[in-house]
Amino acid sequence: MTNTLFDALFARHAQNDAPFLTLDDGSTLSYAGFIRRVAQLANVIASAGVSPGDRIVVQAPKLLDTIALYGAAVQAGAVYLPLNTAYTQNELTYFIEDASPALIVCDARSEAEIRMIGDTPVLTLSANESGTLSQAADGQSEQFETVPRGTEDLAALLYTSGTTGRSKGAMLSHKNLLSNAQSLTELWQITDQDRLIHALPIFHTHGLFVAMNTALLAGAQVRFMSAFDAGAIIEELPRSTLLMGVPTFYTRLLADPRLTKDLTANMRLFVSGSAPLLAETHVAFEARTGRRILERYGMTETNMITSNPYDGGRVAGTVGFALPGTEVLITDNGAPVADGEIGMIETRGDNVFQGYWNMPEKTAEELRENGFFITGDLGVKDTEGRVSIVGREKDLIIAGGYNIYPKELEDVINDVDGVLESAVFGVPHPDFGESVLAAVVLEDPELTVEGIAEIVEPHLARFKHPRRYIVLDALPRNTMGKVQKNVLRAEHV
Beta-carbon neighbour count of residue 456 at 10 Å? Predict the structure, then answer.
């Protein structure tokens, strides 16, 4: 038997001496060297009692051994469960109790706290390679007998952010991950001639599966950065061809005067995702570099769903077309709506997850019997099939019986000179059900909320007007750059 994901992404590089990972210290590891390290780690986790199908919880720094551990988990037939490095002990307790892992790998600095959660075996990773996992791997064989796993076997368990309730574990199979990597690699024309700047975290779909899986599938080089550093990225641009990032990456790069067309002459693709990219950022980036950012759309449960085209028009404010092999419908209570009408985004394909861990009722609510997943995102599709995101269903504001879509208001507010960005959200109102509030970040300190309201009002029906504007230094965001409207609602209710 074969191991679907390992054979496609890892095993094929066993004799490949081409460079793979270049680290912050300037050292470079070949593909073949990486595969040998994967085998050493696989031997360690197998010796620690991890069996096929067992979960491995990983809350560790972004290191060579952390990404090699992902490969080791796949090779050993285990289920890789990465967790945000910012999660607290209380949050970790929920994930660990829910997933019942056979092994936990954590930062050496947090080992004592992790051990207090339960009796699961713990190994550690640290930046100076003194962690117990790295030390144990150093003495292991560089060969490991790959555990057979099929297309439907689980390869990963990723928990959603849990902003509207208990965080849910999305079960992702070998087929889910491989099919998406294949679609993206082909669509974005990634090859072994590419060099990817990787500055994303690797506990998330974007950094782990979109970036690393496509690089592995294509045999591309990766400049593996431990964290985002605009200056370091500026230095890498002339020798690289790809950058995958979140909108914050691009706004911070635009703040550096060294970002020019000459600097990016060797770059062929800039990808943005995980949060909406402002049209102004899209336009400003093209003006500075001559390159149009490619925006795509995906979720933890589905990997990537749509993408703007590699060749052809990349329209600011849209997320493009359904990926090959992926279906996208815009629906109202499950029934497709006409082009141009707002509705729920539903998707079906080999990329769609297997369901929620330990939550059969929630799985039944969001994953239809016909295979379509109800994303919770509201969108619209034009006559060409191009998709635009209107917002999350949970962010929809219903005031006085009228539906108000925050993105429509945000687009108008963001067009006001002196406004850097905005977030529109609803709070309870005794008469109307909900009231519209707008949080704004200003780049012109002379601009007043009265001035904003005066400019905005003619562009929106009266029932859409924000009842209050709140000036903030910055919008609350999670680690992937998404605005946390639940935080705004809680603070300004």
Answer: 21
Check if the beta carbon of residue 100 is closer than 8 Å to that of residue 55.
yes
DSSP code for 432: T
What pLDDT digit, counting tens, does each position of 141-171 carry? Answer: 999 999 999 999 999 999 986 544 578 999 9
CB 416 within 8 A of CB 455: yes
Q: Which residues have CB under 8 Å from 313's CB, separation 6+? A: none
| Burial class for 171, CB neighbours closer than 10 Å (0-12, 13-18, 19+) | buried
What single letter denotes the amino acid at residue 401?
Answer: G
What tokens does 433 get?
């059900």
| Helix (H) / strand (E) containing 412 | helix 406-414
Q: How many CA atoms lie within 13 A of 69 on its CB side?
A: 32
Kindly report, residue by residue over 356-398, the tens digit of the pLDDT: 999 999 999 999 999 999 999 999 999 999 999 888 778 888 8
pTM strictly above 0.85: yes
**How far apart (Å, rounded) are the C-alpha atoms in residues 428 and 235?**
48
Counted residue by residue, the chain has a size of 493
Cα separations in angstroms, 355 against 153, 173, 361 = 13, 10, 10
Using CA atoms of 417, 418, 421, 427 in order, give the dihedral in degrees to the nearest 10.
-100
Q: Which two tokens stand for residue 212?
A: 């690393």
Tell me which amino acid residue 12 is: R
> Within 436-492, where are the H helices?
449-456, 485-492
